[in-house]
Specification:
The chain has about 260 residues and is mainly α. Helices cover about 85% and strands about 0% of the residues. α2 runs antiparallel to α3 and α3 packs antiparallel against α4.
């Protein structure tokens, strides 16, 4: 359930993408890798690979994950630049081909469940480690910019919680392919939380400074507008005085 909640939290990112109609500095690679991860572990949990329904939780969670991740990739594709669309296609098509090849090989090339689990689980383990390692790019950006803008706290917290729960579940069922990725994911989740603790105050200060700058600009605009009104009024008064003087001078000449 926590993993479904983690997937739902990606909506925050894509709500921003849809609102701004731009993918900004977000990368498509984590979502494509996550899609491959969900595909592999859904296949791993099916009776074709596993013995009967011993890994049914993997099928339910990752099956929902396929729908979400596929939606995210499509949204990213729609709102990315032409260059970004090419990058999505170049990355996603080979990923789908790899999954199809592994699924066909595991179904027809191996006679028993043990060898099938070994093949699919080994590839899934590598992909999961890559998926959990993908936030390293975001963490590098956080350290360089000293801002957590592109690494939301709810997403980091749920990532840590999800990896911790999968680690516990994998240990309980004694499945290295389920527990293995979380051995990497849990420490990375902790590191993300540490970065949030370090840089969240700086983020608040930057937002406050930004607000103060906008307020100062508004005040300066108001002052300029008031000065402009005063100048305009002075110009009108001078014009009226000059007109009055000319009229009086004309009357005197006529007399």
């Amino acid at each position: 359930m926590n993993c479904v909640w983690l997937l739902l939290l990606y909506r925050v990112t894509f709500k921003r993408v849809i609102k701004k109609k731009s993918t900004e500095e977000f990368s498509c690679i984590p979502y494509i890798v996550a899609l491959l991860n969900c595909l592999l572990f859904t296949w791993y949990g099916l009776p074709v690979v596993s013995c009967k329904w011993e890994n049914f939780p993997l099928v339910t969670v990752n099956g929902v994950g396929i729908l979400f991740e596929l939606s995210y990739v499509l949204i990213y594709f729609c709102f990315s630049s032409p260059k970004g669309k090419v990058k999505v296609a170049i990355t996603a098509i080979p990923v789908l081909i790899v999954f199809c090849a592994i699924a066909i090989a595991s179904a027809f090339a191996f006679p028993d469940h043990r060898h099938r689990k070994l093949l699919v689980g080994s590839v899934g383990l590598g992909v999961s480690i890559a998926m959990y390692s993908s936030p390293l790019v975001a963490m590098k950006k956080v350290i360089q910019s000293k801002s957590v803008e592109f690494m939301p706290l709810p997403l980091s917290f749920c990532s840590f919680l999800a990896s911790s729960l999968w680690l516990t579940y994998g240990i309980l069922i004694r499945d290295i392919f389920v527990a293995g990725p979380s051995v990497v994911g849990t420490p990375l989740g902790i590191l993300q939380l540490v970065l949030h603790c370090k840089y969240w105050k700086r983020k608040n200060n930057m937002e406050q400074q930004k607000g103060d700058t906008i307020e100062k600009l508004d005040l300066e605009k108001g002052t300029l507008a008031n000065n402009g009104d005063l100048v305009g009024k002075g110009y009108l008064e001078n014009s009226n005085n000059n007109l009055t003087n000319l009229t009086n001078l004309s009357n005197c000449n006529s007399s």
